[in-house]
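Appendix B. Worked example

We walk through a single record from start to finish. Start with the input: the chain for Niemann-Pick disease, type C1, Scleropages formosus, length 1249.
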Amino acid sequence: CWGASSVEEGGVVEAQHCVWYGECGNSTSVPGKKYNCNYTGPPLPLPEDGHDLLLELCPGFAYGNDSVCCDIQQLQTLKGNLQLPLQFLSRCPACFHNLMNLFCELTCSPRQSQFLSATSFSYNNVTNTTSVEAVQYYIGQTFANAMYNACMDVQAPSSNVKALSLLCGKDAKDCNATNWIQYMFNINNGQTPFSITPIFTDVPMANMTPMTNATRGCNESLADGSGPCSCQDCKLVCGPMPVPPPLPLPWTILGMDAMAVIMWISYVVFLLIFIGGVLVTWCYRKRAIMSEYGKFFIKTALCKPSADEVTCCETLGQAFEVCLRNYFSVWGSFCVHHPLVIVLCSLVLVTACSSGLVYMRVTTDPVELWSSPRSQARHEKEYFDMHFGPFFRTEQLIITTTLDSASIYSPYFGGPDVPFGAPLDKGVLHQVLDFQTDIENLEASYGNETVKLKDICLAPLAPYNNNCTILSVLNYYQNTPLSPCMEGKIFAPASLNDTGPLHDPCLGTFGGPVFPWLVLGGYDATNYNNATALVITFPVNNYHNDTEKLNKALAWEAEFIRFVKNYTNPNLTISFSAERSIEDEINRESNSDVSTIILSYAIMFIYISLALGHINRCRRLLVDSKISLGVAGIFIVLSSVTCSLGIFSYAGVPLTLIVIEVIPFLVLAVGVDNIFIIVQTYQRDERMLQEELHQQIGRILGDVAPSMFLSSLSETVAFFLGALSNMPAVRTFSLFAGLAVFIDFLLQISCFISLLSLDIKRQESNRLDILCCVKLQESQESRTEGFLFRFFRQTYAPFILKEWVRPLVALFVGILSFSIAVTNKVEIGLDQKLSMPDDSYVLDYFTKMSQYLHTGPPVYFVVKDGHNYQTVEGQNSVCGGVGCNNNSLVQQLYTLASHLLNVPLTRIGFPPSSWIDDYFDWVKPESTCCRVYNSSGAFCNASVVDKSCIHCRTLEQGKARPTGAEFMKFLPMFLSDNPNPKCGKGGHAAYSSGVDLTQNNTDVGGTYFMTYHTILKNSTDFIEAMKMARILADNITQTMNPEGNASHVFAYSVFYVFYEQYLTIATDTAFNLGVSLSAVFVVTTVLLGFEIWSAILVCLTITMILVNMFGVMWLWGISLNAVSLVNLVMSCGISVEFCSHIVRAFSVSTAGSRVQRAQEALAYMGSSVFSGITLTKFGGILILALSKSQIFQIFYFRMYLAIVLLGATHGLIFLPVLLSYAGPSVNKAKALATRKCFTGTERERLLNF
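Next comes the structure step. The output line below is what the pipeline stores for this chain.
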């Protein structure tokens, strides 16, 4: 039996004598550990077979003749106890040297009795031995401080934390020299078999001399040749820390926004010049025109140019105009002569093209929608997926509690009590655990199979450990209420004090650590105890190339969403999202908006059908109406859309939702405008004597078709050139839109003309519209001007072009100046909240994510194939330990994460996990991690007890890192080693997917070093994070390739592929709009008979509309992204409709002055544009405001409304006034030809309109 004895029974210890020697008796406090035997004699010689072990553990100590106060068994116990500190601290040789100094002196020093005093003993009557149960260890305070200073910065790469956080019993920021040593010597830490009380003093006390051995600073080399610690592990080694550049100051003038000041000054200067010019011109005219016949003479001179005054360009322009007019006249006449043939051929063509819809594919994959296959992000994503597997699917819960409970935790070793918030209350955690367990046990049906989480989850240690990765605070307790951590008195999951035998945070059931910043939210700084939310994440395997497995994951996610939606607990508030949530909600949103879209188009269709008719008398209402023709026109417009979709479906080009939603709106605007122009021109025309219907319609088509051709060809070319864009959404839209617009034009000048002729014949024979078999009694048809045309001709056009009204258009320049000033302030990106319906559960998740989460998405710095890890130089350029370059990959990331955290510049939140640094620690001969069977050379795990297992490398070899073939020999073993209590550095869980071994495990291909972004809350944060990560990756690549080596590093995160577009969207927008305007300019120049000035005025007006669109976007909170860029490209096309018809009408007019020509163009074309585009679209657009979809309300209702209003005001107000001031002179060749053509006819009076 055991008996207690006093200090006196043990005898008085004399100087230069031992306190113990050997082991005897089992520890009653820590099962499996032994006490040391009480011994007060002189040091004893160490047996010869223990010399190597002493040299291995205490290489820097010279004990003379190797007479020490320990035997071989004690040395072996010391070696076992120091395995964990060795694995975490040996990366800094000076730190570990000082630590070994502390323990070697304690265990074996021949002068042990000078600083070690035994205070409690126990006696074993059976073995007749006395065991030491407690001692006092006198340690120099200077020594303790120096030891702590050498170790305080050492990192634990696999955990992204400082090593002392795992070895001090508390977070590293709360650790100091005193409480660290106290924790290591405390009997409650699960490792110390008996109580060791450290007493810190630099002067002798109580007849004891403190242990004050010399120490090494972390910036000092050791006698065995080991170099200083790395910068990552020792701040003293680092050079000057990089000073972050100051944030760019806003560009200001006199404290005001510079662009605003410049534009307002420019506008004031313009006003002064413009008003001055108007006044000077007015005074000049007053003096020049002295008689009442002055204007008549001027007009006559302008209208009757001589043939000698005609220039070559004017002649060419007239010839081109005549050619177009004649061609379309002949074609129109042919269509009227053979209406059934044309209609039948059109139907066959439409059917053939539309049949391609059977091959239609709609792309819903966000990657395909927003990222170009040729983009950097796509290439990097494909590389990452190929070498490391696709990024996992994420199911995440953010849980808060309605309870106001709190708990108090008392730290192990002093310090104030730590209060914990309500979410960390034990009762709340039990409720959350029940909820989490229910989710783990969810069963989803897929076909005839049942799918559970374990079938699809990420299990990094499979097949050895099939437990799912669950990132939850409950995994500190292995997701069970029976865990010792949870049931015992240790209850502080967020303080990192929950240590088991590993001295590490309680590992999750999946075999890896659970980081507090991933599972807790709503805390300040690193005070995890203040957490106000719990975050639970279920990573699920992604199966890009396995549809069967992907569908199983989707089925389980659907069941997960259903379960959480229906889950109720009055104490818990749960926000959640699954990987499929966003796509599901967008689909639901699209379905809910179908009725709104249908109503919008229905209103436009009804208006078109009714507005085309020109009703003179109520009796002829059903005769003069053109409902059937309007429906046919709409059918033609929609047919052009289906033809475009079908043709590209034949070619295998997939559709997108943007194409389906936007193109009908665009083509309807263009097509309806042309329909109104054709029909209203006919309604205003009078058939000449001896002229038949086919000749009249041919003549009318010859008048209006060139204008339609101008606008349609301009839009078609502009859209096709827009397909040069790198953005898939813009490119696809441009292709489909360009073809649809052109097919619409072809159908309108053929099929619609034939249908119009049939409808005219019906009307002339007094047959009812729709019910064409019913015929009214013959009555005299009288032609009158329509109200809208009469209003434009008699009231609106003369008013707008009055001498005192025209200068008011200077307001348009003011609006333009404002828009230019705010264009650079339009926000870039797409707030993901906008893509969700108003009642979506995902909106609540987005809100809670911004409110509570402290960590952004993981970011991987990938080193591509080609880097040589087998050479010292190659290792030094990436690693972060001893001997590594200060500008290595790991060191640069560590520096940015550690020293610039308070500056939101790099967006790197944590030091990276480094497989190569952990590998070097794992392979050290002092560690028990790397062992092989002596006979076979196969790997022997540290947990295996077998005498045939030997260290991979000898102590002599261990002085240098493994290189060459030796490096590759042990690397596969490291990547397959599971962490265990005797070796926490096994790389299977943390790094097995991060290192791509090639050539039958004889070389290293691609690898990655993972860290996390800081919390990213909006598009700007995501864009800046990606931008800075790429800059950093490029800088690392340059430092790794001083001599042009093949190493290349890129940064990858799962969101880069979606946000890359925003890095170049400003230039993409300028390119797309610039190309479109260039196309409009070239086509307009050619089709207007090479009138360059007219083309310039068209492009100027369209540019003003586009710039003003940016002003509206800033005022209305519309961000610049792919959706809004598509709308801007579309607005360029619609703007052509608003401008080109009026400019062409002005160009071909032969009226006397610019004002008269502008008035004529506005009267004849303005009314058609207003009724065709403006009124048609306005009613339909207003309905979009009723949509429940935020994205519809913002990017469709607001932008469409702005497009129509800006187009109408510029086309019907600004442009006519601009033409009256600065329009091109009349084409003299056209004027001569017009007079020659119409002199002596009933149309001669139109010459003097």
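Two observations about the output. Residues 1-14, 290-303, 484-505 have pLDDT under 50 and may be disordered. Residues 326 and 424 are 85 Å apart (CA to CA).
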